[in-house]
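so the lab meeting is tmrw and i was supposed to have these ready like two days ago... anyway. pasting both below. for each one the top line is the aa sequence and the line under it is the structure tokens. i havent really looked at them closely yet so no promises
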Amino acid sequence: MRTRFAVPLTLALLMTFPALAQRPAGERHDGVQGNQGHIPQAPAHREGHARPEIEHHEDGRINSVPHVNHDRWYGHDRPNDRRYVIPQRFDHGRFEHLGPSYRYHIERFDRDHHRFWFPGGFSFEIAAWDWPLAADWCWDCDGDNFVAYDDPDHPGWYLIYNVHTGAYIHAQYLGS
């Protein structure tokens, strides 16, 4: 009797291992890892002369990569950075479902053109200078892995926050 149940149970367990192996490394059961496991509030607007804040660790290491840790937004480029000037701001309209209340998965991803789509056909293009930060993100993982924020320092741009890594990138909304 025991062997009759042991074989199907063993097969079922073996079939679940590949699915478990595809989760991002270190992922917690609630799917959130970055920023100590919770989604940050939107970043505050900074003055035009503000420099990117760099995170200094106790052991002397520094981290200047754009990320959120303990609800502080690190590595955000200067507000007056010329790369973010857009002649026709919001040319494709505004994306309005922003902040921690809205978590998204990626419905489609175009790696060659650095574009992605949220559910409902809302498309974004990743800033060329931020692509190296986002190239290895798990764009096709299951779950709601991203949060969008209005960039308070660069009008016309959005910040796309990766809940698993705590990192963020800049993207332009292309409409739906």
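ok protien two:
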Amino acid sequence: MNRFTNYRDAFPNARLNRSENGVLEVVLHTEGGPLIFNGHTHEQFVDLFHVIGDDRDNRVIILTGSGNSFMESLANDGI
């Protein structure tokens, strides 16, 4: 088992897919729609990016979102 299979499904707000040549696609989302950014997702992404960075099989990372916008704030505060 490689490292990727250990963390691929460990982050509920990130859908991860990696090609055989090391291109990792990270789709940030909340329940399949746009990411709602809050303290919990912020902490989750700190851990996610540490794990991604520690995996030397990741050669290129494509960071994207799901839904009609890349990210939304929890409260409608103009962010």
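from a quick look at the 2nd one: Residues 39-54 form the longest helix (16 residues). DSSP finds two helices and five strands in the chain. will dig more after coffe
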